[in-house]
Structures are given as structure tokens and as C-alpha cells.
Design brief:
Blueprint: E1 5-7, H1 13-20, H2 29-45, H3 47-58, E2 69-70, H4 72-81, H5 84-102, E3 109-112, E4 118-125, E5 128-132, H6 141-154, E6 158-162, H7 172-181, E7 185-187, H8 191-200, E8 210-212, H9 217-226, E9 231-232, E10 240-245, H10 251-262, E11 269-274, H11 277-290, H12 297-307, E12 309-312, H13 316-326, E13 330-334, H14 338-341, E14 350-353, H15 359-364, E15 390-397, H16 400-416, H17 420-427
Parallel strand pairs: 1-12, 5-6, 5-8, 6-7, 8-9, 10-11, 10-13, 11-12, 13-14
Antiparallel strand pairs: 2-7, 3-4, 4-15
Helix pairs in contact: 2-3, 2-8, 2-9, 3-8, 4-7, 5-6, 5-7, 6-7, 8-9, 10-11, 16-17
């Protein structure tokens, strides 16, 4: 395996580092055109279009759209069919995810000023949210837990899940996860047509207020196109991991941590930053040796050779500065006193502190959400959480004295903006 090594002392480091961070993959116009047509068809013809595209893309024929719904009893039965260890693992993960997210809830608040004016904020959950889950052989029950549980903790009244079942193939772990997470309704429909159905509603599939969950390029493009009609969580790019290591961790551990994200797809990015050249060489050798053991070796190789890197830094402070420029989705701090070092990191989706904290734990069962900002967006965005399923409404209630005091200020500002009706509306309430 050939993984590029960059050294910050090299004269051309800055240009090579900039090239490494080039995350632009362009827009596929063919995909955009296809998705636009699907959305227009579903918006115009509702269930009929959903059925047509489901037959075309998922090879699933049903008599009517109502037959696409997977019953609550079927979800429960799927959970009961699971091997005991799988069901117990899902339940344990769900419990940890729920416990973590319950700490994110925010409450309404208000205060009263001296003149009796009341100001505050009213917090309410979304009425209905939609969850997209990949289906068929691409089974991601962890994604169900991570997206559904914060919505239910937030108090979302109804959670609608869509999951493709290509050729009628149903994944019991995905359905069991929906049961355990408390999903209200599930429909066997996927692709851009599922996103469109959630965004605009059909006779069978309810319209939602927000769509969350991962999908392929068609799903991501559809989410981008319906944003504004509904809210979305984010447009997720390829998975990313950065590891900062002081050189004292087992090289095999670090190599496998890098593989854990590289195996997602060829565009995933895995980067090691270390001040220890010998350790960098050891990790590179471990990656070459361990690759043969990986079932997804071809994907890992393409990811590592195409977008991966080992960066040898002057020291750990420089590693932190470079990481803040990367703003990775996942960041492992494989070192002593990682908790203190984490204070140097301003931009990362999730930080995994210490040699024993593998990123994979966060993917499944640690508790924090694994839906994280990618492609450098950790500079300005956050992991999915309860707050994404809550709305904040401002509260303003003026007493007569408050209306007099605020009205005088508002009048001056409104006249300054040339908005006479605004000024008059405030002035009517000013005491003469």
C-alpha cells in the first residue's frame, strides 16, 4: 500500500496540504436532472409516481401505496427474530444514546423586567420528522438509533421512517432498531422518491417538517433540492478520520482506526498526524501488513492511496493547528492527557480522547451522535442532536409602561428607516 507522507518541514508542504484538503467532488449534472424529474413527478402525481419509481429502482411491485407500509407488528416481530446478542446490543446502544441525548434538552424560559414587560423563549418540538435509512444489504441499524432517538427525546409527535427494500429484501436489524427507537411508521420506499414523498406528502406518506438520515448521491441531491420546503439535517460528504498520536500507541491500533473509516468508501479520508517519524513509518508498515486481512481491502486501498496521508509534524502543537484547518468529522487523540489537549481543538465533529477510545465506539454505542459534520463543515456546524428537532419561539409581552418606553425608541428607529406605519403603530401606545 502506498500512503503519502507529508512533512511540515518540507518546502512544498503547504501546497501538498492544500491539495489534500481539496474536498470538491463536483456536481453530477445527470444525477441532478434525474432527481429533479423524480421530485417533480412525486409532487404532481403523489403515490402513483412513488409506486412507479419503487418498481423501477427497487424492483418491488405492490398493488397500492398502502402496501408499502411496514406495520408496527412487523417491526416487533423483526426484533423478536433477532439473535439474542444482536437484540441485546441494539437495546444497550439505544439506552446509552438515549441517556446522552436526554441531557441535551432545553426548556422554555422567560423573565420579567421592572416595568412588567415579559420576554422569553418558548421551546417546542417539531410535529413530524422523516428518517431516511439505507436498506437491503446496506444495513445500518445504528443510523436508525442515532437519528430516531434524539427526535423522540425532543418530543417529536410522529417519526416517519423510509427504507428501501430492493427485491423485497428486508433487514431485520434495521426494522428491530426502528421498534426499539420508537419509530411511529415505516414505509418500504427509498431513493429520491422517498425524500420527495416526505417533503411534499402523498395520500399515503405524510408530509414531514424535517428529513434526516444518510443516503446515496441521489438521496443527498434530493435532500438539497427540497430544503426550504422542509428542513434537513445536513448534506453529508465522505467519512473522515484524523488521528493525532504522540508515537506511543500500538501502531496496529492506529492503522486499524484509520481503516475503520477508509472502509466506508473510496472517497473516505484517513489522516495521521504525529511528530514521530519512526512511528509514522511503523503505522505505514502496519497498514500494508493488515490490509490483506480486510474483506473490504479494495475500498480501503483506494481510500488510503487516493485521499489518505501521514503528516509528520514538528510537535503536537503544530498537529493541533493543522487539525483545526482540517476540521475533521472524527478526531482521535491517541496520547497521554488527551482531555487537556482537546482544549486546543476548535473544529472537529467528535473528539475521541485517549489511546483506548476507538472511533468505532462512537459509531455504535458510546452515546454521542454519530451524525457529524463532514467536508470541513465542523468549522461552523455541530453533531445531530435533540436541538435539531426543537424550535425556539420568541416571547414578548409589554405592559403599558413597557409599551410607552419601548415605543419611543421604536418610533425613532422606524422613522429613520422610512417606515411610517411601523412608527405609528408604536406611537399609538405611547402615553400622551
Amino acid at each position: 500500500m502506498n500512503i503519502r507522507q507529508l512533512r511540515t518541514t518540507d518546502q512544498d508542504f503547504e501546497s501538498e496540504f492544500t491539495d489534500l484538503l481539496n474536498r470538491s467532488h463536483g456536481e453530477d449534472q445527470d444525477v441532478t436532472d434525474v432527481v429533479r424529474d423524480i421530485i417533480a413527478a412525486v409532487r404532481a402525481r403523489g403515490d402513483a409516481a412513488v409506486l412507479e419509481y419503487t418498481q423501477k429502482f427497487d424492483r418491488l411491485e405492490v398493488a397500492n401505496a398502502a402496501d408499502l407500509e411496514i406495520s408496527v407488528d412487523a417491526l416487533r416481530a423483526a426484533a423478536e427474530r433477532l439473535p439474542e446478542d444482536q437484540r441485546r446490543a441494539l437495546e444497550q446502544a439505544a439506552e446509552r444514546v438515549r441517556s446522552y441525548h436526554e441531557r441535551q434538552r432545553i426548556d422554555s424560559w422567560e423573565y420579567t423586567e421592572a416595568d412588567g414587560t415579559v420576554l422569553g423563549q418558548q421551546v417546542t418540538p417539531l410535529d413530524r420528522a422523516g428518517l431516511y435509512v439505507p436498506g437491503g444489504k446496506a444495513a445500518y441499524p445504528s443510523s436508525v438509533l442515532m437519528n430516531a432517538i434524539p427526535a423522540k427525546v425532543a418530543g417529536v409527535a410522529e417519526l416517519i421512517m423510509v427504507v428501501p427494500t430492493p427485491g423485497g429484501e428486508v433487514n431485520d436489524m434495521v426494522l428491530a432498531a426502528a421498534h426499539i427507537a420508537g419509530v411511529d411508521r415505516v414505509f418500504a420506499v427509498g431513493g429520491a422518491q422517498a425524500v420527495a414523498a416526505l417533503a411534499f406528502g402523498t395520500d399515503t406518506i405524510p408530509q414531514v417538517d424535517k428529513i434526516v438520515g444518510p443516503g446515496n448521491i441521489y438521496v443527498a441531491t434530493a435532500k438539497r433540492m427540497v430544503f426550504g420546503q422542509v428542513d434537513i439535517d445536513m448534506i453529508a460528504g465522505p467519512s473522515e478520520i484524523a488521528v493525532i498520536c504522540d508515537g506511543k500507541t500500538d501502531a496496529d491500533w492506529v492503522a486499524m482506526d484509520l481503516f475503520s473509516q477508509a472502509e466506508h468508501d473510496e472517497l473516505a479520508q484517513a489522516i495521521l498526524l504525529t511528530p514521530d517519524q519512526a512511528f509514522a513509518d511503523n503505522v505505514a508498515a502496519a497498514m500494508t501488513r493488515l490490509l490483506a486481512e480486510m474483506p473490504r481491502a479494495d475500498i480501503i486501498r483506494a481510500s488510503i492511496e487516493g485521499r489518505g496521508a501521514i503528516i509528520v509534524c514538528r510537535d503536537l502543537d503544530e498537529a493541533a493547528a493543522l487539525t483545526n484547518r482540517i476540521a475533521p468529522e472524527h478526531l482521535e487523540l491517541s496520547m497521554d492527557d488527551a482531555r487537556e489537549y482537546a482544549k486546543k481543538i476548535r473544529h472537529a465533529g467528535a473528539i475521541f480522547m485517549g489511546r483506548y477510545t476507538a472511533e468505532a465506539l462512537g459509531d455504535y454505542c458510546a452515546g454521542p451522535n454519530h451524525v457529524l459534520p463532514t467536508s470541513g463543515t465542523a468549522r461552523f456546524s455541530s453533531p445531530l442532536g435533540v436541538y435539531d428537532f426543537q424550535k425556539r419561539t420568541s416571547l414578548i409581552g409589554c405592559s403599558a409602561e413597557g409599551a410607552d418606553r419601548l415605543g419611543r425608541t421604536a418610533s425613532v428607529l422606524a422613522h429613520g428607516e422610512g417606515l411610517t406605519a411601523h412608527a405609528r403603530s408604536a406611537e399609538y401606545r405611547i402615553r400622551k
